[in-house]
């Protein structure tokens, strides 16, 4: 590099846990002028979202000079957290929510914002398991981490388990509330018509759904009583 040249680097990442929470791993590819380096790590107990975050953090921390970095991740939790300003907003609020609960994965979001400040970083979402060459490779590397014999300890997740009451969120009641697992705003979805079970005198007209981690929330306001047990 010339003295004033800022390197342009591509960072591809993926992470996961099996089950979730469970054994985890992440895979990282750093690419600069056609040269690539691959990394992976495994963890004894963690979550999918923590591994997605850790993958990006690990890759950025490997870059020792100021660089223009383009990040590619299939995690909307990570990409939206930065692009939509959620993480910066949490930081401004001292990593607490309106009811005083701590933001989930605070330790990693804080670490990610700190390392982003050292570079010029752009985030891009890519669809997972859709034939994207580097994403597929990172998925392979993440699975190597999950299956590796020697795994790390996710101290941040263990601390969360010890103080889980600090992170408890209010009930999910309406569209736009944040998923308790991954902090993604939930959306309203209509339930499919089906035959009620014998003796069942109610059904749920809709449910709240997290598009990121696929969690479903059945809410009391969606409950509808029926007089006859039949198709609806």
Question: What's the rounded overall pLDDT mean?
Answer: 89
At the first level of CATH, the class of the largest domain is Alpha Beta
CATH homologous superfamily (4th level) name of the largest domain: Ribonuclease H-like superfamily/Ribonuclease H
Q: How many beta strands in the DSSP annotation?
A: 10
CATH architecture field of the largest domain = 2-Layer Sandwich
Summed up, the domain count is 2
Indicate the CATH topology of the largest domain. Nucleotidyltransferase, domain 5
Classify the helix fraction into a percent range.
25-40%
Chain oligomer state: single chain
For the largest sheet, list the strands in their spatial order: 3-2-1-4-5
Shape: elongated
Number of helices: 6
Structural class: alpha+beta
C-alpha termini separation: 68 Å
Cα radius of gyration in angstroms: 21 Å
Q: Report the major sheet.
A: 5 strands, mixed
Provide an overview of this structure:
The protein is elongated and about 75 Å long. The strands form three sheets. Strands 3-2-1-4-5 form a five-stranded mixed beta sheet. Strands 6-8-9 form a three-stranded antiparallel beta sheet, with no helix packed on it. A two-stranded antiparallel sheet has the order 7-10. The termini are far apart. The mean pLDDT is 89. The protein is an alpha+beta fold. It is built from six helices and ten strands, in the order E-E-E-H-E-H-H-H-E-H-H-E-E-E-E-E. The protein folds into two domains: 8-166, 2-Layer Sandwich (Nucleotidyltransferase, domain 5); 170-232, no CATH class. Helices cover 27% and strands 27% of the residues. Helix 1 (48-61) packs parallel to helix 4 (106-116).
